[in-house]
Amino acid sequence: MTKYDGLARLLRDLSGPRTRLTFETIATAVPGGLPPSAYRRTAWWSNEAQGSHVQARAWMDAGWRVEELDLADRSVTFIRSRSS
Question: How do residues 34-44 score in pLDDT, each as one tens digit?
Answer without folding.
Answer: 999 999 999 99
